[in-house]
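This entry is listed as follows:

___
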Amino acid sequence: MLDERLVGLTFTLQDAKSTGTVNFFGILYHYRVEGPASAGLLVMVTAVTPLALIVTAHHNILAY
C-alpha cells in the first residue's frame, strides 16, 4: 500500500473533525477517524489506504 510503516504511529487530534491532515516525516497525509472524534484525543494509525490514513482512538486498540 501507500506506506505501511505509518501503521502504529500515534498523534493527538487538534480538533473534533473526523477528517484532517497530519505531518509525518515531512510528508502531509490525510486521515480519517474511525469512531467519534474529539479535540485532544490520542489516536493510532491502524490502516493505510491510497486516499487516507485510518486512525482509531488509542484506548480502543486491543493489545494481544
About this structure: The chain has a mean pLDDT of 90. The first strand starts at residue 10 and ends at 12.
